[in-house]
Amino acid sequence: MIAIEASILSADFARLGEQAREAEMAGVEGIQVDVMDGRFVPNITFGQGIVRALRGVVSVTLDVHLMIVEPERYIEEFIEAGADRLFVHYEACTQLHRALQTIRELGSEAGVAINPGTPLSVLEETLDMTDLIQVMTVNPGFGGQQFIHSQLDKIRCLQGMLDERGYSIPIAVDGGIDTTTAPLVVNAGATVLVAGSSIYNDRASVGQNVAALLASIKV
Predict the structure, then answer these.
(1) Does 34 participate in catalysis according to the annotation?
(2) Domains of the chain by range and CATH?
(3) What angle do CA 155, 157, 159 make, to 5 degrees?
(4) Which of 12, 32, 36, 122 has a CA positioned 20 to 30 A from the CA of residue 196?
(5) Which of 37, 63, 174, 178 is the catalytic position?
(6) Angle at CA 61, nearest 5°, toward 50 and 56?
(7) Which helix (H) or strand (E) holds 129?
(8) Distance between CA 189 and CA 185 in Å, rounded?
(9) Could you tell me if 58 and 82 are in contact, meaning their C-beta atoms sit under 8 angstroms apart?
């Protein structure tokens, strides 16, 4: 089963609740909230209040992607705000295993995200604490970037590593996902596709854009 998630980083910020509901009605499996602090990445976006507000208007999975330094400091606050799944970046965590353990103990699913320049080897010692791995197919920080095709090999290698070690951890991808790249990442082994600008744009409605994505991977 392939899941599409809508990244509200590309939504109309003046209509976040409405646009999140539009994506839910269109058939996405989740909403991803990209939390940026202007330090780990060169942009500032959302906080706990946005997560709490969205939790009140959508019933699909609410993913919170922490692109911030010292994410351990904010784990409890985002889970209390309503996050079903919390992603921390390997590159931002000094104690990745402890962060994942804390997320799980607080009742949320624990996800790890890795940047395009980060090798898969950094994940090996925390697979037993990981519920989802998110491969960044752009360098994080801004929406609307071009897909980095070299990450397709990383997705394939990650799937091979998981199979070899006997783990059935889903692989998510985030960045540059559209009707052209979606089938590529699915063929490489991804099962959760996070899309932003291809869902929220002026070319068609949110419903039409989600339908086009689903059609491209023949879900």
Answers:
(1) yes
(2) 3-216 (3.20.20.70)
(3) 70
(4) 122
(5) 174
(6) 40
(7) none
(8) 6
(9) no
**26, 207 Cβ separation under 8 angstroms:** yes
Environment class of residue 210 by beta-carbon count within 10 Å: exposed (0-12), middle (13-18) or buried (19+)?
Answer: buried
**pLDDT tens string 22-56:** 999 999 999 999 999 999 999 999 999 999 999 99
Amino acid at residue number 118: T
For residue 142, pLDDT beyond 80 = no
Give the alpha-carbon dihedral of 55, 47, 89, 141, to 10 degrees. Answer: 110
Q: Which helix (H) or strand (E) holds 51?
A: helix 48-55
**Residues of the chain by 3-state class (helix, strand, coil), percent to 5:** 40, 20, 35
Task: Name the pLDDT band for 143 (thresholds 50, 70, 90).
Answer: confident
What does the DSSP assignment read for 104-120? HHTTSEEEEEE-TTS-G
pLDDT confidence of residue 141: 77
Long-range contact pairs involving 165-170 (C-beta distance under 8 Å, separation at least 24): 165/127, 167/127, 169/127, 169/130, 169/131, 169/132, 169/133, 170/131, 170/132, 170/133
Rounded Cα distance between 112 and 172, Å, is 10
Active site includes 174? yes
Q: What predicted TM-score, i.e. pTM, was given to this entire model? A: 0.95
For residue 108, give both structure tokens: 């949320």
Residue bearing tokens 């989600």: 210
Catalytic hit among 34, 37, 63, 178: 34
